[in-house]
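FAQ: What does the model actually see?

It sees only this:
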Amino acid sequence: MTRPWTAGRIALLAGLLVLGAVVGLAGWLVVDLWFPGGLVLAVLAVFGLFLGGRIADGSGFGVGAGVVGWFLAYVVVGTPRPEGDFLLGSSGIAMYAYLLGGTVAAVICATLSGPFHRPVQAAPSAE
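And it is asked to produce this:
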């Protein structure tokens, strides 16, 4: 069963896309700064973003919006500039581990089943 595309849902997905880009950039900085603890912290942050998107939207689109933002930030920061250097340096294997960890987290959250098949709603008031 698919959910209708409302303005609120589109705004939620756009917000998750922007948040994914912010988390991707912050993760790149943390991994480079505090390896190996930063790698664990960055992958946990990405996992939290993807799981939160899954719960908030109630479908895999919530995960997908965060993944697109995260991956775009990863690619933009990791692509060499025309001068031949990088916007931010990478510490070799840590960046590949960050990419692999984020990808695994995305797949886990996208294929997760359970009580996440409906959006989060406010609790009914007891009257």
